[in-house]
């Protein structure tokens, strides 16, 4: 799951006027991956290239107990919610932000081969839709574009900005699915991830600036 992680951010913004701004929600949706690629750089969490480990993703995510355990994800969600509450004193906004952070683990559970944990140690979990691209690909596109449509209908941002975000998300997903595969994990692996997450978040923030219906 890549751009599909932003579906809960868009849906949350559509569902409640008290939700945090869409740029903030885009950060929330990928927060644990921001943290993972940072910890990968620091040598705290680990992955390696293992062609064939799944049909769609050659990355063996064999050690990520802090970011991709349910307990760890809940911790990130709690911290993010706390920061929102400190900044806004809005409990509903804080809970929505935290829920978007936590959604990341449950969406990963659908697609990952067993590499997620409950608390950092086995059993490892994952339903493995990465082995079923005819299910995973339309699912990811469907939830993302459906959530974007709902957000646009409710919040009424400038249509051109919605279209730009849609193009950026689809382009990032196309690279993720069909682009060249790195032969090994390097510093560039994390930097490329940061660029992709940052670009999508920046465009979402820009789109959100044009909302006609404000929080």
Q: What would your notes on this structure say?
A:
There is one protein chain. By secondary structure, this protein is mainly α. It has helices spanning 7-15, 22-29, 31-42, 70-88, 91-111, 133-155, 159-178, 187-208, and strands at 46-49, 59-63. The chain has one domain (3-208). 62% of the residues lie in helices and 4% in strands. It has a two-stranded antiparallel ribbon. Helix 1 (7-15) packs antiparallel against helix 2. The longest helix has 23 residues, at 133-155. The radius of gyration is 17 Å and the shape is globular. The mean pLDDT is 96.
Q: Measure the end-to-end span.
A: 29 Å
Discrete helix count: 8
Please state the average pLDDT score. 96
- Spatially, the strands of the biggest sheet line up as 1-2
Instruction: Work out the radius of gyration.
Output: 17 Å
Q: How many strand units?
A: 2
Q: What are the secondary-structure elements, in order, as H or E? A: HHHEEHHHHH
What proportion of the residues form beta strands (DSSP E)? under 5%
Helix amount: 55-70%
Give a short account of the largest sheet: 2 strands, antiparallel
Derived from helix and strand composition plus strand pairing, the structural class reads mainly alpha
The low-pLDDT segments are none
Shape: globular
Number of domains: 1
Structure described in brief:
The protein is mainly α and 215 residues long.
Layout of secondary structure:
Layout (H helix, E strand, L loop, with lengths): L6 H9 L6 H8 L1 H12 L3 E4 L9 E5 L6 H19 L2 H21 L21 H23 L3 H20 L8 H22 L7
Antiparallel strand pairs: 1-2
Helix pairs in contact: 1-2, 1-6, 2-5, 2-8, 3-8, 4-5, 6-7, 7-8
């Amino acid at each position: 799951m890549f751009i599909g992680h932003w579906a809960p951010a868009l849906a949350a913004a559509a569902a409640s006027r008290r939700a945090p701004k869409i740029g903030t929600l885009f950060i929330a949706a990928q927060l644990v991956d921001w943290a993972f690629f940072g910890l990968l750089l620091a040598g705290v969490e680990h992955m390696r290239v293992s062609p064939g480990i799944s049909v769609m993703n050659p990355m063996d995510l064999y050690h990520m107990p802090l970011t991709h355990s349910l307990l760890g994800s809940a911790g990130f969600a709690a911290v993010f919610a706390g920061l929102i509450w400190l900044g806004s004193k809005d409990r509903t906004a804080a809970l929505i932000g935290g829920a978007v952070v936590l959604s990341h683990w449950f969406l990963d559970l659908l697609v990952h081969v067993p590499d997620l944990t409950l608390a950092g140690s086995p059993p490892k979990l994952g339903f493995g839709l990465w082995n079923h691209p005819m299910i995973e690909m339309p699912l990811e596109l469907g939830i993302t574009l459906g959530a974007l449509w709902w957000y646009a209908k409710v919040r009424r941002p400038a249509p051109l900005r919605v279209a730009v975000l849609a193009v950026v998300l689809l382009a990032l997903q196309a690279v993720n699915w069909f682009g060249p595969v790195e032969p090994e994990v390097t510093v560039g692996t994390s930097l490329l991830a940061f660029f992709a997450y940052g670009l999508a978040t920046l465009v979402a923030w820009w789109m959100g600036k044009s909302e006609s219906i404000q929080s």
